[in-house]
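Sharing a chain and its predicted structure for anyone who wants a worked example. Both blocks are below, sequence first, tokens second.
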Amino acid sequence: MFIDKAKVYVRSGKGGDGAVSFRREKYVPLGGPDGGDGGRGANVIFRVDTGITTLLDFKYKRKFVAEDGVNGGTSKCYGRDGEDLYIKVPMGTIIREAESNKIVADLSHKDDVFVLLRGGKGGKGNCKFCTPTRQAPHFAEPGMPGEEMNIILELKLLADVGLLGFPNVGKSTFLSMTTKAKPKIANYHFTTLKPNLGVVGTDGTEPFVMADIPGIIEGASEGVGLGLEFLRHIERTRILIHVVDISGIEGRDPFEDFVKINEELRKYSVKLWDRPQIVVANKMDMLYDEQVFLDFEKKVKEVGYKKVFKMSAATRDGVDDVIKEAARMLKEIPITELEISEEERYIPEEKKFTYDIRIEENDEFNTYVVFGSFVDRLLEAVDLYDADSLRYFHKVLNNKGVLAKLREMGIEDGDMVRLNDYEFEYLL
């Protein structure tokens, strides 16, 4: 089964919590704090695996959670770091952030490795909070939370040449004649339901990869047929071989087909529309009026193309000429990376622990509510029922500028300060 798009949830590991511990041994009555630090949470890392050709694995598993760091232990023992989670994807995979649909990474090389989410940092044990005036801290730092993201994995095949054309014009037959690929071939539309890849190698030419892209018809750029699902697979190609059914046995005009397909390319991507094309008139063995080809050739040249190749994929007449022309053009066209504009690229927000303050007024006193991620983390780290821990709590509030901001907002003696479920009376 060919799967080229998948939506998955990924989360890196949380850092381990620091330990609150005191050394207690015989003959060491005042051993002091010895709580160790927590371990780092595991990263989520994507790695290219050339042995994988589709995103089928992500059809059955859509949630990937990395290992948390281990909590710190006694005797200043550090917790173990979480083991990084490696996720294998096929070469040519693009990672998008699901909500914005912006590109996070393009994994288009053999050895590409990308760290998508970093694990949370481990919390400090209570021994790290020991000072000359605070010799027995009864609190430790919790581990930092991991990161999480919903992403879309999108596979864009890596091919040098893309086959283009309406259904049933002979693209699959051409691919089967020039490579060892075995696509399904039948005389009806949409026989090909998935992209097929093959390596073309003939005497005197460098081997290259060719892709048969199915389902591109009029309206493909707007989702008609299968086109929108597979147009992405020719974005990386350097050359397009545009195959036209010159016989007209289905009652369509060859030049109108040629124009319609190019119009769909233009609507989907101007860069794709500008890509060099080799125009091929296929099924010449079924053409009984040579004038039809001459009229088609004349019109194609009028719109800027220098040559139209005659071919019959079924009998192999003219096939080698097309392959040689493709190989010649590939030598002149450099390999370029997929261009990602600034508007398309995802830039992660810098994570900061912040707070805000709102005032709840009443007749007797005002209540200043301090809330935000900074408050949540601070309250996790301290024991407000311990004197040393409470002093540390006030020190952090002062260093962070919370107390200064409260005074700036006009807090008065007797007003209340609320942090989550805790309330304190403010005294000047």
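Comments welcome. The two ends are 71 Å apart (CA to CA).
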